[in-house]
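Risk register update: the risk of archive-format incompatibility is retired. Evidence:
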Amino acid sequence: MNKITQLIHVDEHILMALREDISCEDISTNSVINEAVTATAELICKEDGVIAGLSVFKRVFELLDADFSIEFSAADGDAVQNKQVIGILKGDIRAMLSGERTALNYLQRMSGIATYTSKVASLLQGSGVKLVDTRKTTPGMRVFEKYAVKVGGGGNHRYNLSDCVMLKDNHVAAAGGIKPAIERARAYAPFVTKVEVEVESLEQLLEAIEAGADIIMLDNMDVPTMKEAVSITNGRAILECSGNVTKENISGLLDTGVDYISSGALTHSAPILDLSLKNLRPLNE
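Archived output:
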């Protein structure tokens, strides 16, 4: 089983999605077929892209029919093409009909993110700059969306608020400044925890460096200011560039000298990859 479906809480998310779509019963399916019938169907791509989430797609049907099987001709991370058949499904026709939309929702969303991430990551090749995502994910979908970013060639920033100390502008305001915010974080967090702080000016950058921040996020700075920030930092902290980074503007950030570029667009702005379940056929066994 794929790594993502080894996580205990993945089934909980999928079951929640199924309950959202089948609150009581699938009245459409039950009205036309009321007994177990084995059927086959094809999973077909309707546009070029990068596939991600095949194990999640399969798991939806397995939770409805333990004997359900799918033979895939592609794996997560593979480039797929329009009209390509990437899977042959076999199982209870009722599970196939009831799980179709939920399974496709996961696969289309995850593959769309992997496809978009792949396009953005390709623009960074050879630059030495690492592309990472953010927490700007769909509620209930983070584990799937961050996995899709990895499949597409990007990296993951922190998974959630428990992962590391990241002091944003409002944390700094609450603490009364960058220095006291970092001091309190050092005093509270385990010594192995890195401290990242967001800065919006070169003055704040200097304060963060002097206070001993491990990672400094340059938030919405223009390119000349970021280049100056890199020069000032001179390796004393890891530098991350963030703020409305998209496929259209990321190329202009490559020569700034930052270590990481984080982009919320990887998850919140990626269009789905169009996929379809077709050619359903009952079998006479």
